[in-house]
Amino acid sequence: FNPAIMWPTNNGTPIALDFFAYYPYNDNSGTEQVACDLAKGISITGANLGTTIGDQTDYLVAPVVADQTVQASAVGVAFEHISSLLLFSAQDITQINELKNKVTVNSITIKNVSTSGDYANTAAGDVAGTWTAGAAGDLPKITLDASVATTAAELTTTTSNPVLVIPTTLTAATQTVDIVYSIAAYNYGGEDFPAQNNITASFDLKAGTIVAWEQGKKYVYTIKFNLTEELEIKFAPTVENWTEGGATDLIVDKML
Known about the structure:
It contains no helices and 25 strands. The chain has strands spanning 9-10, 13-14, 17-19, 22-23, 33-37, 41-48, 60-61, 65-68, 80-81, 84-92, 103-111, 116-120, 130-133, 142-147, 153-154, 163-165, 168-169, 176-183, 186-188, 191-193, 196-204, 212-213, 217-227, 230-241, 250-255. The strands form eight sheets. Strands 10, 15, 16, 23, 24 and 25 form a six-stranded mixed beta sheet that branches. The model has no long low-confidence stretch (mean pLDDT 87).
């Protein structure tokens, strides 16, 4: 701190302090309200991650550090993410050389997800709180125009187009993603195939083992394209730290 904040005493006797830590700072002057409770920890009413991809608010909360008295060392607070992070990657898994490297992912649009709500912690010693999600809606389209290589590559990352959402239990045919992609013209078996532009494939984001987005977890959805007798797109979500979760494939077939 600048200026430094000194440990308080009462006639030379140290006074114990409880430390509450969260990010970003809120002076409770607006609709978003932060409450600190020694038994339950920190709660945030009216939290809003925002919908501008790449410029959302990453809320952090630390467990309460209670009953601290004068000490030379720094008071340790361990911040944790309380939202969920969605990332997307793509890979060309085509086995025929003439058909490789023909796909471009133009954009992705994530639909019917919530980016606002109320967070309530349940115990001061951790941040395993609960979310009450606000109204769901579609996020702005993420324009990519990214060529798909044979090695899986991230389309969105924690620093480029990260997508933060409110943790929630997923429902089939509710939380979805539209992937717009194009296929370049190519020749196969002596036959010319024209370019195909702006093809849309839609996927449920509840798939395989992924049935919920949990706080502090990163979910990586990998789109796998296989251009053979038919165009096969496999959708392979995984979860990484932030913390690990699960994986599955989503597949779209399109005859050439």
